[in-house]
Structures are given as C-alpha cells and as structure tokens.
Design goal:
It contains 10 helices and 8 strands. It is an alpha/beta fold. It has an 8-stranded mixed sheet. Strand 2, helix 5 and strand 3 form a beta-alpha-beta unit. The N and C termini lie far apart (36 Å).
Amino acid sequence: MNPVSRSVQGQENLNPDPSSGAGGSGPLLSAAQRSNLLPLTAAGYAWWRARSLRSLGADFTLEREAALFRALCRPQAGQDWLDVGTSAGFYAGVLARADCRVLAVDLSAPMLREGAKREPDARIDWAQLNMERSDLPPASFDGVTVGATLNETRGPAALLAECARVLRPGGQLWLMYLRRTGGPLQAVFERPEAGGLNFPDPAWVGRHLPGLTRTDGLSAGAVQFERYVKGTDPQGAHGAAGRGVWETL
C-alpha cells in the first residue's frame, strides 16, 4: 500500500482546492462534519454506532452488518482496502480481521485516535484526510468502504468520484447510507444549521458512479447497503455476487 503522511491538522482546509480562491481554503465543512471534530463526539461514537441502525428502522446489529459485508464483498487476505470516514474504525476492524491491509481515513483527529484505540491492529494505517479531494494515487485499492460518510459530506458527488478514482479495475465499493425518504426529519437535518446532511436517492448514487456496476442493493428501513464493482464483469470480482438484485430486508 502506498504510504500516506499522518497529518495532525484539525482544520477545515484539509486537502485544499488551490482553485477555490481565498488562499486555497476550499469549502467549509458541514455542521455534521464539524461536530465529529469534537473529542466528546468521538468518545461516544462507538456506543451510538452500535445502536444507530435499529433507531432508524433497520433491525441490524453490528455483527449482522459485518456478516452482510463479508458475504457480499468477500475481502481476501493481502488485499488493500480504504475505509472512508472510518470514525471509530468499525469497517477497518472487520477488514483487518480478514487479513487485509487497511488505510482508515477521517477528517477528525479525535475519531482517528478513538479508532486506533479500539482497533489496535498493525494491518491498519490511520490518516487524517478529506476524501472529497484526496491526494491518494489512482487505482491503488482493491476495495473501498463508506459507512454513512456519504450523508455527512459537503460534496457527495466529489466523494463518490474520489472513491471510484482510487479503485483498481475490478475493485469493489461498499456503501452504507441513509437514503432519501422524503420524511420531515430529513428536511430538518438537511438545513445547514441543523447538520447539513445529505440523503441521496440510490438512482442518484448510481448516476455519479460511471464506470461502476451495482451488483447488490439492500434496503432496511431508511438504511441502504450497496455494492459496486469497477470496470469489469461484476461476476469476476467473486463469482456468486453480481446478481444485480434489489432486496428489501
């Protein structure tokens, strides 16, 4: 895996866009992203994450979520994976226990410290990075996981484009996010002052991943799980998947 410097920045100009003006500061973070910079948020995140899907109408424990991911993506020993918005390191830990090499990235230094404390595994590297605009080399990972980060990012289209860019041909992209339901609470949390969250429609996500094929999509309450494969016959990634199925749990 290509080494990535471990930044100690905690600023809103991580990975600045030099074309954005104002000294290349780039877009500010959303309120939801800024809240993740707080040590208190990081300290309580793992507790919340273990209960969050059930609170959103999905009868999913972390164990069931991990089993679903392993069954569909089948991570293999020695593969290189990128965990985007790792938070407390849930997917990074699942991948490391499958003997994969993992780069776990997050905007928040407190989240990275919490993840490293909870998942002390030499197969995981931790890096502070904004995946809306990263300097990671293209085609450098066999797989990318994105657990709910798509809802919090300021630029969901940019994040998806970066995830696709760093995937190798035949690589897998695993997404978990809250899909758009049109409910009143979503309208509230979309407001900048209330979090600035995004609630993408699955069709919108697919349109922003040209060159990738969706092989699996599962809906559990408002929670969406999707697997994409880049630039190849999706059957070639691991055989049994690539069914192109849409399931509701």
